[in-house]
Design goal:
Distance between the termini: 50 Å
Strand content: 5-15%
Radius of gyration: 24 Å
Number of helices: 4
Number of domains: 2
Order of helices and strands: EEHHHHEE
Shape: elongated
Length: 180
Amino acid sequence: MSTVGPSHGGFNASSRRWLLFSSNENWVVPAGTDERRFAVFDVADQWKEDHQRFADLYAELANGGREALLADLLSVALDAPEAPNLRVIPKTKALLEQKVRSLDPITAWWLGRLIDGSQTHRAAGWRHKVSNQTLFNDYLRTVEKAWRAPPRGRNRVRHTASPPGAQRRERALDGRRRSL
């Protein structure tokens, strides 16, 4: 099947591509809160740099392992009540981590506040009332700090746009700050 191209309501994609990739980065896929496209798994550290294990695995595959795996997969009764539903993406801890890393700045800030148990970074606990301006200032402080932080990991693209609600400031030659 290979019908790929624009259509009236968006993009017509009858072609189905299955991709598998691995990464050492913390943020791998743009997983939304209702993610249904990506299955994300963490590999246990015990297999890291275990070259002998992988050599043994490749040797097994080369000596009838592929055929045995295919026979095992073909013997699974997918219509049985206890069979896994292959159309449902597994809800793994790794997928949840990708969802959190993909949150928009406002939602990520609010999640941080909920996890910390206070509406602002300076508050010791949850207060009955907090002004909108105090919340907004705390949000700006958090987002501006995150955008100024150096990118982590290899191959990171540095964002040049300002975060939502923040003003970009630049230092003029005379040392004064000015808003852009």
